[in-house]
Amino acid sequence: MPLKSYFFKLLILTLFLFPWRLYADTPYQVVYLKNYNAPDGLLSSRVNYLTQDSRGFIWIATDKGVSRFDGQHFKNFTSADGLESNECFRIAEDNYHRIFFYCNNFRVCYYENGLIHKLKSPQKVTVLPFANFFFNRYNELCVNYRLSTKVYHFDELNSRRHAIQHLNGDIYGEDGEEITLSQNDLDILEKELWAGQLSYQTAKNNTKPYRLAIRQNHLLLITKDWVHVYQYQKSGIIPLHKIYFTGNVTSVYLTGKNTFTVTTVKQGTYIINYITGERKNYLDNHITTSTLIDKENNLWFGSYDKGFFLSTNPEVKIINKESGLANEDVLKLDTAGGYLFAGHVLSMLSYMKLGAKQISSIGTITINQNRSDFNRITNLLTISGNRIMIGTDNGIFGLNVSNDNPASWHPENYFDGPIKGITQQHDTVSFISQNAVVVLSSQFTRLKGYRFKPIRMTSLTWYKNKLLIGSLYGLYQLRPNTNDINYSRILARNRINIIKCLAANNDVCAIGTEAQGLFLWAGKNIVQFNSPLISSGDIRKLVWTDANTLWACTADGVSIISFYNNYQNYRISLLNTSNGLPSDNVADVVRNGPDYYIATDQGIAVTQNLGNTNLPRPIMINDGATGNQSSFTYGQPVVFNCVALSYKSMGKIQYRFRLKGVDKNWSVAPSGEKRFDLLPPGSYELEAVAADRFNQLSSSLIFKFTVMPLWYQQLWLQVLAVLSAIVVVFLLVRKYYQSIIGLQKKDYENTLALQRERQRISSEVHDDLGASISGIKLRTE
């Protein structure tokens, strides 16, 4: 924005030097923000605009092209793919679901069916920095600026011709709204602009721009200093209220329900409800350019130099270094004396006052120990008398916080040695140190120690007046009221091994293991909870926040198991970065009234919402170039591509495929591409579903396709080949048998000829002999 006056120069200088004064009345929201930048696949770190299309994809306009984001992957488009220019300023979707891009050469192009198309019309489009860019109900390209709507009509886009009622005063909205302002309405608006020193000329040179926006029956007069909300009626506009904001404003856009966003230089983004006036500020000390509230109610923030940020649950507040926390890696949590205590490494204990609307100042106590290494806070336990017991790698300490004066708090050392677990019953405190269980009295004097064999104890808890000891070699039971050491292993038949944590209430005991998940032990019944039902099978900490709610902390988030019907039924919710936690690595949980404080290695999350209730299911979309192809030739690779949209899962999507009638089980894949190389000819149905991070399944997506045989695999040709083979074989066999019969006939004829010859010879010999005998006889007579 050009600086035309000394006033503007002074204003910008004041913004950079004293930004807090301008936004002092608006609380700054510290929430978990997932950052996506150029190294993640985004074309550029400079984001000009963000929008979501009707299918659910997020489109990002940058100075180096356009990116489409599905929650996992970026699909990028540049001038090499058909964009008019790499620098894109606005994105809009028309009524035919084509995505249009406004580039820096005043030309418009659009995306359809996987390709970028340019318009044939040479008409140029002008969109000033403070104007918006959208399609109206007639599929005409509209630009709202000053007190009018500039309409661009392109016949090739199938824009509908309609009668223009008035030359001035026709205003269009992004959701199909269309209103006509009377001359009296325009006079009211111009009078208000004149009072604020805004005019046609200031808008033209962009020094003090303004425009109108219509959302249902509300008309908004938008400037860089305020937004005046009117109720529109045909009889005339009715002023409702005027919302002021200050700072170096870069844009004002309507997004979400009854809200608009204000992006600024170095003061982040305002999100303001123009009905109630409620406002929130995010991304302080950032240059923001665009803001989007998507269909899942996630917040997207575009920035000038850091890509864009995603907040999946802005209702979860974060306490971190920006809030004053000395160390974001929080190991343990507890509350005492109206304060929240957080244990860290290096023997640091942070504390903050509870009950204030805003996070109070955070103090730090350092526990002096003899060793500089192995000095983590391993346990925090509040006991009677507003005292908190602090276990470390080098000893156990007590802190009396009954005096509401942190300066008077001084830790007292009661025992030296590594502490692995602390529990209380009545007036005694028991804890694990090395290979022994030590019991302290209410006056913190040592009563008794019970030495164990080296079973590597990890935790302990009281359950039905029995002290249970968890170890890497199973679960043990100890009766410390006896004079002799009396302990024995229990639940060995249930194969419960490598126990890491225990938590019990009056009715049940929860047992956390390293790889088997957790076991709920209630009398003779034992129920196991393991992944994927809960976040992970490796349990770090178990916490009962009330008699029926169990929290299981893991390195993959925290699982909340809500029991009812006397622990016979339950409901499980998952909390992780997709719900707004700053990290999946959860170490501890503590409750204070309606608020739950969750310790992670990236700070403390504060929420009142227990998990993934009423979360939207993932949406499956056919996104392949071959998705519309239904016929393939044998030997041709058959490839299908689908995308599951679930931005709350932050890319953690599991795809499942099966050929109906062929596969008995689902095949699992990390991506939505399914490939077949040598499917036999035939008709098939490929079914695809997606599971999000909370084990919710999408609706099925069916691909119907046919694999056509090659020419030599055609049925008629195969039948003909078989018949031909049969005929050839028949002829060969016939010829063979004919030759055999011919040979047999010839042999028979030869035999007959030989026999006749023999008979002839025999006859001749007989005749000759008879004649000779007759001659001899005659001669002798």
TrEMBL record:
Residues 647-706 form the Two component regulator three Y domain. Keywords: Membrane, Transmembrane, Transmembrane helix. It holds the Pfam family Reg_prop. It comes from the Bacteria. The chain crosses the membrane at residues 715-733. InterPro entries: Ig-like_fold (IPR013783), Reg_prop (IPR011110), WD40/YVTN_repeat-like_dom_sf (IPR015943), Y_Y_Y (IPR011123). This is Two component regulator propeller. It comes from Mucilaginibacter gossypiicola. The lineage of its organism: Bacteria, Pseudomonadati, Bacteroidota, Sphingobacteriia, Sphingobacteriales.
